[in-house]
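User: My collaborator and I are trying to settle a disagreement about how two of our proteins should look. Neither of us wants to argue from intuition anymore, so we agreed to look at predicted structures for both before our next call. Could you fold the first one, then the second, and keep them clearly separated?

Assistant: That sounds like a sensible way to settle it. I'll keep them separate. The first protein:
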Amino acid sequence: MRLPQASKGCQTANKDMSQITMTQHKILVADDDIFTLTSITNGLNQAGYEAISAPDGETAVQLGLQDQPDLAILDIRMPGMSGIEAARKLRLHGQIDSLFLSAYSDRDVVELATQEGALGYLVKPINIQQLIPAIEAALKRSAELHTLQQKEVDLTDAINRNREISVAVGIYMERFSADEQSAFDALRNYARFEQMKLAVLARELVGNSKQRNKLFEAIHEHHNKAQ
């Protein structure tokens, strides 16, 4: 997988940078080269971003977890904690995605960046006109990834809820010699009566709650009265 590299012939070079960013995003920038760090943060601020600067990887992680930026731009080779390690910590502990900067474009560096889920890789020296399109593309990709991750979490939760409901229905069927539809109706009607979600009731029924037996009896009694 090749990560996107910025082109020097960027088409936005002559655009007013203040018109490029429609929504202000918070961007963390980490580089041990003070000239590069200052140049990028000043350029991003002028372009309408809120830039946070860090002179090393440790500070980048600290500020990232504290301020929750929309994206981190990290120099790969920094003394102490490298940009690769900082990106790993930001992603694992803050769900913050990263773009990488480096004076090198060798295969090993690109592979390391890829393994850490880099959304882009840019070779220094870099100017702000080159950087902004890469940032906007990375922000869009980051949003897409987070949406997919949330959908995956929601789907997993739904599967787990359905599994708990199925187990609870099965237990009811066995205890009271009921068919599947009757057992499901008993649980659903009791949940409505108690103004609780069916999934919550099912979780209590399949858990290790000491009240589980009494709860099953209450559901069965309620079901019989309703018939």
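The second protein, kept apart from the first:
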Amino acid sequence: MTTQQARGRVRLEQGRKRVRAYLGGRLVADTTSPALVWENPHYPAYYLPRADVVAELVPIARTEHSPSRGDAVYFDVVVEGRTAPAAAWAYPQSPLEGLRELVHLDWDEMDRWLEEDEPVYVHPRS
């Protein structure tokens, strides 16, 4: 991985592993270009290219502000009739340019995560 950007307590690195997320046994996202985002003191989190999310992202009224990442817009994640409310968010106007085209899927709302073909539990491997 190579460091792309850092702002305050946030660091973004481009990954090279294949990452997949599932909801109700259905594929939500499949990417070979995940980003790992660290915000001290938390574990790293995946942010995925929006183009690699195959589930429908339905915008909802919820927003939140992060001093380091900007304003988040939230989405319900819908795949084959199953909905995970407010299970995705993005920062389209982030001061971190590398975040603008990425979406974060709530780890706990997804049933299964894979790095390559290995199940991943609790948080991404760095």
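Some points you might bring to the call about the second protein. The mean pLDDT is 90. The domain at 2-117 is CATH 2.170.150.40 (Metal Binding Protein, Guanine Nucleotide Exchange Factor; Chain A).
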